[in-house]
């Protein structure tokens, strides 16, 4: 990611708080903005008080900066705009955010990540050319852990960011020896999965999961009703095994069947506007994604239970010794109901790559 030259410039406490608020606003919009990034923006008056804020709207709607400026109104003149991403400088479905910022009379812009998209990037230099003070490259570690970070990964890799989710017992079993798996985890953990699905563009499983569990793969609210926006259901089915009556074929959400290999399928999803996906497939599909180095984050729900037999979390990865273990970085550990949710990521630049030890 290119970081503006003034990335080391200091920002004050109000701007720092507004930038974190922008990331939270963007997180709340995650799942509804693709292929655009889930951006949040806040306008601060000269005293540092928020006078406007907003998130990027679904495709065709205004970007976060414009939403925030509209809310601030005439008070935006002489104010500071804080955004999680560098304001765009191109004409797409909407006009350039830089143009709206200049027109509003903003005198200072603070943003988190530079935009790596060669089509939309360059907004910082446009603003500087209009004598607006610009400070970029702030809180990049926090940006990377946000929904915007997933979008950045997708742009940089040319494929969707992939979160692999699984639910297992403490001994790593995803089902009993007889194949039953409902329910390994508690109700709160399952509700948490629905929130996870809602924040992403698509949910991926393999044909084996469909045949074994017949999941619907939808997002439901706390009352059990279908959410207004549903992620695309994607099923890998190279052998055409999914029956016509499978629940993933119902009308509650769009469904796409892929017969391509993992890498080719992900490239196709990216071209179709998908930027972040949730892999919920079984051990075989998970191993395929890991072997293809196409997993960026893992969210595991661990139940305080033991089975001692049954399918394991992931299939054979061809790792012959402890020296080649896939080493991960723990991002979060949280108690969800009776279960533990563990979120891990691969070290920067080493997605699903085996490590070696001396």
Compact overview of the structure:
This protein is α/β, with parallel strands linked by helices.
Structure explained in plain terms:
With about 350 residues, the protein is an alpha/beta fold. The chain has two domains: about 140 residues, Cytidine Deaminase, domain 2, CATH 3.40.140.10; about 190 residues, Dihydrofolate Reductase, subunit A. Helix content is about 25%, strand content about 20%. It has ten helices and 13 strands. The strands form two sheets. The protein has an eight-stranded mixed β-sheet with strand order 9-8-7-10-6-11-13-12. Strand 12 and strand 13 form a beta hairpin. Helix 3 runs parallel beside helix 4. The two termini are about 30 Å apart.
* Helix-strand category: alpha/beta
Total DSSP E strands: 13
End-to-end distance: 31 Å
CATH superfamily of the largest domain: Dihydrofolate Reductase, subunit A
> Which sequence of SSEs, written as H and E, runs from N to C?
HEEHEHEHEHHEHEHEEHEHEEE
Low-confidence stretches: 1-5, 352-358
Strand order of the largest sheet: 9-8-7-10-6-11-13-12
Highest-level CATH class of the largest domain: Alpha Beta
Shape: elongated
């Amino acid at each position: 990611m290119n970081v503006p030259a003034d990335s080391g410039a200091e920002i004050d406490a109000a701007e720092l708080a507004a930038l974190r608020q922008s990331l939270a606003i963007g997180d709340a919009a995650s799942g509804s903005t693709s292929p655009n990034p889930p951006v949040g923006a806040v306008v601060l008056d000269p005293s540092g008080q928020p006078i406007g804020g907003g998130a990027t709207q679904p495709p065709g709607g205004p970007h976060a900066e414009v939403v925030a400026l509209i809310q601030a109104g005439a008070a935006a003149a002489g104010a500071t705009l804080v955004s999680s991403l560098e304001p765009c400088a191109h004409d797409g479905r909407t006009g350039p955010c830089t143009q709206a910022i200049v027109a509003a009379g903003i005198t200072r812009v603070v943003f988190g990540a530079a935009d790596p998209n060669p089509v939309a990037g360059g907004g910082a230099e446009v603003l500087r050319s209009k004598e607006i003070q610009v400070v970029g490259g702030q809180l990049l570690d926090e940006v990377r852990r946000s929904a915007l970070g997933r979008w950045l990964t997708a742009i940089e890799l040319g494929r969707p960011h992939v979160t692999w989710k699984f639910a297992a017992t403490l001994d790593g079993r995803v089902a009993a020896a007889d194949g039953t798996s409902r329910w390994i985890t508690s109700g709160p953990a399952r509700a948490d999965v629905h929130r996870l699905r809602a924040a992403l563009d698509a949910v991926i499983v393999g044909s084996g999961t469909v045949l074994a569990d017949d999941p619907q793969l939808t997002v439901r609210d706390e009352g059990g009703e279908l959410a207004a926006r549903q992620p695309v259901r994607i099923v890998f089915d190279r052998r055409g095994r999914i029956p016509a009556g499978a629940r993933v074929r119902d009308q509650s959400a769009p469904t796409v069947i892929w017969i391509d290999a993992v890498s080719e399928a992900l490239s196709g999803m990216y071209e179709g506007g998908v930027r972040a996906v949730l892999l919920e497939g079984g051990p075989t599909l998970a191993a395929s994604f890991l072997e293809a180095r196409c997993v960026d984050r893992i969210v595991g729900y661990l139940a305080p239970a033991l089975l001692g037999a049954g399918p394991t979390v992931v299939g054979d990865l061809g790792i012959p010794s402890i020296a080649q273990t896939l080493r991960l970085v723990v991002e979060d550990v949280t108690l969800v109901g009776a279960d533990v949710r563990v979120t891990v990521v691969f070290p920067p630049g080493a997605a699903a790559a085996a490590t070696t030890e001396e």
